[in-house]
Specification:
Elements lengths: L3 E2 L3 E4 L5 H4 L11 H11 L19 H17 L3 E4 L4 E7 L2 E11 L3 E2 L8 E2 L9 H8 L4 E2 L4 E4 L5 H5 L2 E9 L6 E7 L2 H9 L7 E5 L1 H14 L5 H6 L4 E8 L7 E9 L3 H7 L6 E7 L2 E7 L3 H19 L2 E6 L1 H8 L4 E4 L8 H6 L9 E3 L12 E2 L2
Parallel strand pairs: 6-7, 7-12, 9-13
Antiparallel strand pairs: 1-5, 2-3, 4-5, 4-11, 5-13, 8-20, 9-12, 10-11, 14-17, 14-18, 14-19, 15-16, 15-18
Length: 388
């Protein structure tokens, strides 16, 4: 099996302010302008991944101009000594937040072995329904970019912790506090990456990796690779850098990995009408939030089925009354948003013990069913890889 590849990884050169360099995943805080304004303040005038990514809160704000600026900055960083190259091994990432210390391995995966199609039997599979209309804007961001910076987190099924047990630590590559309450992160070079790679291949089940975070970003990488392939020679097809996507792999049994629900925030001036449309039932429970106040409602005990029913209600409401839905990580963040209008729905979490069995059965979860931790615990951009 050749699904996993040891990549050439780009890290910031010595002397760069790492706290300013690393920023949170672009799909976080998509209704919180203040968060991204604070990121802009912290990173202002410094080399930063903020200048290399497209926060999704700005997707409708002159996107072509921002994309051009991102690509220009990527080329400037590549030619201007901002990066140093780390070759010959994976990076062991230890991320400390209030949930504990989560340990992952930064590696590359072969996009030929990944599919986001429902029922796919590839070694790497999506975990949630992929919304195809979300991909084209992301393709425009990536297709001419010389670099990728991953917020993708892959999950692997390793109850015995066999992968990390064989990993041998070398030089510490970075060790610093993250901005905006992101906790602390430490990256260490793995000196026996071939052995670690083989340990991944010996983990449980036929499914090597399930996409935990960044499903649409990885789907975008796949689409861009498929668009590029017809222009390549047979030799180029084998080793073109765009064929291999950078990601962090985390054991689903990691004690600090928390499966959190992704809540719904319906932007509307008619919350009463939404409550009339909403139909939930079952022995489980969820919460409606209006003007910062929570009210319990019954919910399907089969959480994925309940989420499909809820999303159908939301779609029906928007088609009849207008409005927009956003997906919010964190209960406190959702409650705060409702203080200025709209309606929130706080959802229950799924059980991660059943996660791999569900995906191996071919059952993609509804879109935005779960999140691995709160918004501030998401993967920050640190590493990069060339894709041209």
């Amino acid at each position: 099996m050749n699904t996993i590849k040891i990549p050439d990884i780009l890290l910031p050169s010595d002397g760069i302010d790492m706290t300013a360099w690393a920023v949170n995943a672009c799909d976080q805080y998509t209704s919180d302008c203040a968060y991204w304004k604070e990121v802009e303040r912290i990173t202002g005038g410094k080399p930063s991944t903020y200048n290399l990514i497209f926060p999704e809160i700005y997707l409708n704000d002159r996107p072509e101009k921002r994309i051009a600026r991102i690509n220009k900055t990527m080329h400037e960083y590549l030619s201007g000594g901002v990066f140093k190259k780390v070759s010959g091994g994976f990076i062991l990432v230890e991320r400390t937040t209030p949930s504990g210390t989560r340990t992952g391995v930064v590696l590359s995966i072969d996009l030929e072995d990944y599919s986001f199609s429902v029922g796919a039997k590839t070694p790497i599979r999506s975990t949630e329904d992929t919304i195809l209309e979300r991909i084209p804007p992301r393709v425009r961001i990536r297709e001419n970019a010389p670099l990728e910076l991953p917020h993708v987190m892959l999950l692997y099924n390793d109850e015995k912790n066999s992968v990390l047990n064989v990993a041998e630590r070398g030089k510490v590559l970075y060790d610093f506090d993250l901005s905006c309450g992101g906790g602390h992160v430490k990256g260490t070079f793995i000196t026996n990456s071939e052995e670690v790679k083989n340990a991944f291949y010996n983990t449980d089940g036929n499914l090597l990796f399930a996409v935990g975070d960044g499903n649409h970003s990885l789907a975008t990488a796949k689409k861009c690779w498929e668009k590029l392939k017809p222009r390549l020679t047979e030799k180029e097809l084998e080793n073109h850098p765009a064929r291999f996507a950078l990601a962090e792999a985390v054991n689903v049994f990691d004690n600090a990995l928390k499966f959190e629900p992704i809540h719904r925030f319906v932007k509307t001036d008619n919350p009463e009408e939404f409550l009339n449309v909403l139909q939930t039932s079952g022995s489980g429970k969820a919460y409606i939030v209006v003007k910062g106040v929570k009210s319990e409602v019954p919910f399907n005990a089969n959480t994925p089925a309940g989420i499909r029913e809820l999303d159908a209600n939301v779609s029906e409401f928007i088609s009849r009354y207008g409005g927009e839905v956003d997906y919010i990580h964190g209960e406190d963040d959702l409650i705060k948003l409702t203080e200025n209008g709209g309606v929130g729905v706080l959802l229950p979490a799924i059980e991660k013990n059943a996660f791999f069995r569900l995906i191996e059965m071919g059952g993609n979860l509804p879109r935005k069913t779960f999140s691995m931790g709160e918004g501030f615990e998401k993967r920050y951009y640190i590493e990069a890889k060339e894709i041209i």
